[in-house]
Amino acid sequence: MSGRKWKIEELKPGMTGEATFWPNPVEGSEFSLRATHFDGRRAPKVVLTRDPRVLGGAPCLVRITAITKPEREDRGTIEVEWIGPAPFRIESVWLDPLVSKKLQVLLQSGLNILLDGPQGCGKTVLARAIAQSLGLEFVFFNCGAVIDASDFFATIQVRASASGAPVTDFVKTEVLEAIEGAAAHPEQRYLVFLDELNRCQESARNALMPALDSTRRVFHPIENRFVPIPDNVQFIAAVNRGREFSGTFSIDAAQLDRFAPLQMDYPPAEEEVKILQNRHPDVAARLIEHVVAVANAIRKAPDISGTLSVRATEETCVYLEHPLFSGDARTAVPEILRSSFCGRFSGRPDDPDTDAGAVWAIVAARLRELSYKVE
Ligand SMILES: Nc1ncnc2c1ncn2[C@@H]1O[C@H](COP(=O)(O)OP(=O)(O)OP(=O)(O)O)[C@@H](O)[C@H]1O
Ligand SMILES: [Mg+2]
After folding, report:
1. What is the pLDDT of residues 155-176, one digit of tens each?
2. Which of the listed CATH numbers 2.40.50.140, 3.40.50.10380, 1.20.1640.10, 2.170.30.10 matches domain 8-85?
3. pTM across the whole model
């Protein structure tokens, strides 16, 4: 975001951008608030506002109303007025702008949210980033091992007592800890992330859903009583339907109805390239573009079961930035994709009747077009 400094001739009255204001240290000024940056870049003159709608410390969207003394390097001001709060932004995760808008509404309303998208499209990192950017206490819970509804709240552990006889203990899960913590700390908001909700036993999910929604109370298996879910607990669940967006997904309509669903997908190619470039600045941009192009050819191919996540493209970058693979990229890239891409599908790359073989055919064809040496 922090690109080069604006030149004064690039800024004109009427332009809009984001800014965060702080009290103006100049005493007696008619402008109570001041900012040093406009739309993520350093401003060539101090940015001032007297608009009472601007709140200090909160990012907002503003419009330039006047620029004084544009010809002077050392003097002059940029005056702005308030348009609205800054759009909700989550650092480090790319999110479709429409999904982002909906997410903002759902988070403000406190509705349960269901993130629905293919493997490795960013559901888990998004949930973490939401908690971080909104200052919520993040509670991660993987539903894959849940068999009984009570498993959401406690696990049973058996240990030997002093006499040697087995004793069973209930150990609270992170979810129950969060519900208790939220009741004890009403000023703190909690985000409980139920990862892989589609993978837990259906009966357990059946028992959980109404509790999260209408009744907002759950059975405390240790205290043997129902406890309310405080309002400062918000649930976000993630499901992974596989690339075909059908099958494998066994949440029925009535259950789904209790969550506001948000569909996610892989970032567009140019955004995926940016994500990877930021994380692996030593890998040539051109190579990253090629790797993402090949990945997208596979993601779009019909008749292959399974898909390629951003983890797979990132793994390729991990290889490419290593000195052991710093030689001729024209041979290194095919070697890497043979394992990092094909290895994520069933079968073998050299067996064209398997998914791995079909994927290799796509990889090889795309790489040849891009002038790589493919055996
Ligand atoms: N939209 C995105 N923006 C930034 N990084 C992303 C995005 N999508 C995926 N990634 C990166 O890909 C990796 C996998 O992301 P993540 O674990 O969030 O996927 P997921 O959707 O939860 O996958 P799964 O369905 O397998 O649980 C992480 O390293 C993450 O940083
Ligand atoms: Mg995940």
Report:
1. 888 888 888 888 888 899 999 9
2. 2.40.50.140
3. 0.74
pLDDT tens digit sequence for 56-91: 877 789 999 999 998 888 889 999 999 987 766 677
- CA 266 to ligand 1 center in whole angstroms: 9
Ligand 1, atom 18, residue with closest C-alpha: 122
**Ligand 1 atom 8 nearest Cα:** 122
The ligand placed nearest to the CA atom of residue 241 is 1
What is the three-class DSSP state of 146?
coil
Q: Using a 6 Å cutoff on CB, does residue 124 contact ligand 1?
A: yes
Phi, psi of 128, rounded to the nearest 5 degrees: -60, -45
CA dist., res. 160 & res. 153, Å (int): 23
Domain ranges of the chain: 8-85, 97-263, 269-369
pLDDT at position 250 is 61
Q: How far is the CA of 123 from the centre of ligand 2 (A)?
A: 5
| Ligand 1 pocket: which of 99, 121, 264 to mutate (most atoms within 8 A of CB) | 121
The structure tokens listed for 111 are: 């509705």
CA 31 vs CA 50, 81, 289: distances in Å: 5, 11, 47
Per-residue pLDDT at 228 exceeds 70 = yes
97-263: CATH, from 2.30.30.60, 2.60.40.420, 1.20.1600.10, 3.40.50.300? 3.40.50.300
pLDDT at residue 170, as a whole number: 86
| Percent helix, percent strand, percent coil in the chain, to nearest 5 | 35, 25, 40
Beta bridge partners of 67: 78
- Res. 248: pLDDT tops 50: no
